[in-house]
Amino acid sequence: MGKPIKGSLPPPSRVYGSALQRVHGPDRPPCEHSGMASAEPARTAHPTAPLPGPDGTVRSRVSRRVGSIAPSATLAVDARAKALKAAGRPVIGFGAGEPDFATPEHIVEAAVAACKEPRFHRYTPAAGLPELREAIAAATQRNSGLACTAADVLVTNGGKQAVYEAMAALLDPGDEVLLPTPYWTTYPETIRLAGGVPVDVVTEESTGYLASVEQFAAHLTPRTKILLFCSPCNPTGAVYPPDQVAEIGRWALEQGLWVVTDEIYEHLVYGDAQHVSMPVVVPELAERCVVVNGVAKTFAMTGWRVGWMIAPRDVVSAATNLHSHSTSNVANVSQAAALAALTGGLDDVVTMRVAFDRRRQLMVSMLREIPGVACPEPHGAFYAYPCVRTLLGRELRGRRPTTSAELATLILDEVEVAVVPGEAFGTDGYLRLSYALADDDLVEGITRIQGLLSELG
Ligand code: PMP
Questions:
Q1: Cα of 253 to ligand 1 centre, how many Å?
Q2: pLDDT higher than threshold 60 for residue 342
Q3: Are 110 and 336 in contact (CB under 8 A)?
Q4: Radius of gyration of the chain (CA)
Q5: Same domain for 339 and 361?
Q6: What is the CATH number of the domain that holds 261?
Q7: How far is the CA of 50 from the centre of ligand 1 (A)?
Q8: What is the DSSP secondary structure assignment for residue 418, as one 8-state letter?
Q9: Taking burial as the number of CB atoms within 10 A of a residue's CB, which of 6, 233, 305, 315 is the most buried?
Q10: Same structural domain for residues 147 and 245?
Q11: pLDDT tens track for 249-303
Q12: Could you read off the pLDDT of 133-187 as tens digits, one per residue?
């Protein structure tokens, strides 16, 4: 470890952070939940300017560890689109990573009832309400077939905190994490915050964005500790076939790796695609596997902030200690709502899935009509991830976008449609479009993009 920090400045942002900074400007929100933060006035003219410490040496104001976190471009795009909309602009937003449906009524009613229960006005166990942990174990067993009990469950503030706490509980400084890329924008930051090193395993549209064992093996080193797996995948919509899940799981087991598998989109699969849970198809892996999940996507509950991890006892125990010192229990009213969701059946997700499937097909066919755009069929989640590489470097309305970030900015500026550039997910040359929006808006938005891109020189 290291060089003296006295007198030194924080390192420059990483490449993709700075690319996005150019696109979104210095006033973009600092994190995924920062629609509010972006509305606040800046507190200082130069928020990153160093300050002299008590001994006169210069120190950075914000710690290097936290100061180097790249902001999430996904919500930054969404926040920018919403701000334009609030200003009266007819913006269509393909940026959001959340269902456009309201939370089902029976879940909301359970939350209202929970508000009136005095026991929920108090602290409850850090690991989660016992009845919710039971329900999570039962639902997991029912849905994916993974054998687990309440003691294997830690309830978290969304699946996001489960990812963060899993990384914090497993990684020592310098440990490497195999990260199929394009990745969900939060993964590398949680890995770095835990002192780990994300190792991109880059996949392409030609293979439907599926990483093979050979690709993982090519990035294996003595420092590799975790293989991070996400199927259905955000941002690509890729769903790994059961055989490939088993092959990757067996390989991870042979190499002595941990697997963190994010199953938050497990119920959003289309056509013949099937979601299988890695520790179910490779049961021996369960002792070295953390499953991440939550109610956000399945039950249209992104704002309620309830997720969980299912992990071996020592990991649950370590993560619970961390959790107890950082957030204590997840809000009880939200936990009561999640309990109602998990015990209330899956009818509502079936309705949402039908709508998403219809929009998915519409979006993909419209994107494929654009010359030069390659859009593999997404089989899960609610995103399409077209490759736009061949459109870059060409003249369009007096500009010449050379990166997908520049192209996304041009699309927003010229036709008021918000899409997320691939840089946010580790791959330049792509765009992510969420199809969790009304059918009419979807058609209008893609029609505008089609019109704009038809002018390409
Ligand atoms: N995993 C993936 C792959 C996601 O896309 C998201 C949300 N965008 C999450 C986890 C976290 O969801 P939440 O924290 O809202 O439960």
A1: 26
A2: yes
A3: yes
A4: 22
A5: no
A6: 3.40.640.10
A7: 34
A8: E
A9: 233
A10: yes
A11: 999 999 999 999 999 999 999 999 999 999 999 999 999 999 999 999 999 999 9
A12: 999 999 999 999 999 999 999 999 999 999 999 999 999 999 999 999 999 999 9
CATH number, position 373: 3.90.1150.10
Considering the domain architecture, whether residues 290 and 202 belong to the same structural domain is answered as: yes
Q: What is the pLDDT of residue 48?
A: 59
Nearest CA to ligand 1 atom 3: 234
pLDDT at 69: 87
Mean pLDDT to the nearest integer, 9-14: 34
**262 within ligand 1 shell (Cβ under 6 A):** yes
The span from the CA of 149 to the CA of 61, in Å, is 45
Of 228, 233, 264, 292, best ligand 1 pocket probe by most atoms within 8 Å of the beta carbon? 264
Q: SS3 for 396?
A: strand
pTM confidence score: 0.88
Is there an atom of ligand 1 within 6 Å of 234 CB? yes
Q: Is residue 190 part of a domain?
A: yes
Residue finishing a domain among 301, 320, 345? 345
3-state secondary structure 48-90: CCCEECCCCCEECCCCHHHHCCCCCHHHHHHHHHHHHHHCCCC
Distance 307 CA to ligand 1 centre (A): 9
Boundary of a domain, candidates 328, 345, 362: 345
Is 95 a pocket residue for ligand 1 (Cβ < 6 Å)? no
For ligand 1, whether the C-beta of 293 sits within 6 Å is no
Same domain, 181 and 319: yes
Please indicate, yes or no, whether residues 138 and 163 belong to a single structural domain of this protein. yes
Structural domain harbouring 316 = 119-345
Q: What percent of the chain has pLDDT over 70?
A: 88
Q: Which atom of ligand 1 is nearest to the CA of 306?
A: 16
Q: Give the closest residue to 304 by CA, choosing from 312, 314, 313, 294.
A: 294
Same domain, 219 and 330: yes
Could you tell me the distance, in angstroms and rounded to a whole number, from the CA of residue 401 to the centre of ligand 1?
30
